[in-house]
Specification:
Helices cover 57% and strands 0% of the residues. The protein is mainly α.
Length: 111
């Protein structure tokens, strides 16, 4: 995902070590507030410049509860074995992400 974000949007991403991750988890409320503060205004400006209204289903706002006491990754093999579920797409590709973004542009949701 980090590579896709870099390639599509030109945003450098990275990973933090255990110490910073532990600090972030202990101060999750403040970390999420800081991230929301940094992203909501620029997102609103992008929407305004693109002529997009305030009410769309897309938002960079992050709910603290979505991250609290939650693992952020999951190995889906057990789910596949137990249910017989099969993915339509084996992996997320740049082309697939760009197609979704373009569909959002057509719907007037993406700046």
């Amino acid at each position: 995902m980090a590579g896709l974000i870099r390639d599509i949007f030109g945003i450098a991403t990275g990973f933090q070590g255990t110490l910073i991750n532990t600090f972030a988890r202990l101060n999750l409320e403040h970390v999420v507030d800081d991230v929301n503060d940094e992203t909501l205004d620029p997102w609103a400006e992008l929407q305004q410049k693109a002529g997009i209204g305030d009410t769309t289903p897309l938002s960079p706002f992050m709910e603290k509860e979505l991250l609290k006491d939650t693992d952020l990754s999951l190995d889906g093999r057990r789910f596949e074995e137990a249910t017989g579920f099969r993915y339509t797409h084996e992996r997320i590709t740049q082309q697939a992400v760009e197609e979704v973004i373009e569909s959002y542009r057509r719907m007037g949701w993406w700046p």
